[in-house]
Amino acid sequence: MFILGFHFPAEKGNNIPDSEVVxxxxxxxxxxxxxxxIKMVSEAHGVKEELSYTNKDTFMFKALVHYAKTASTDYMxxxxxxxxxxLSKRMDSDDETMALCKKFDSMALFRIEAA
Length: 115
Description:
Blueprint: E1 2-3, E2 6-7, H1 18-26, E3 38-44, E4 47-53, H2 59-70, H3 78-91, H4 95-104, E5 109-114
Antiparallel strand pairs: 1-2, 3-4, 3-5
Helix pairs in contact: 2-3, 3-4
């Protein structure tokens, strides 16, 4: 099983506790402190929207920084967006993050950049 690109043993099945995902994210070796903003561009039906996310106290921010620094492309794969969104809905509660989760649940294309 892969969640956010992290491998979890098959014997765990699909029931990976959120705390184990957070632990792998925290121990990934990625420096989260040097990023103050995540910039994204979404595109759906030919309409582009520039997004900025700066809430550093959230799971969402850490997951996006990790993705931006480790992914081989700046395009966010839907599976990763969906996983980030679902975990964030359970761990974060602020309005800004919930609005971004809603956008991630769409089929729009996303590009990401850590700033």
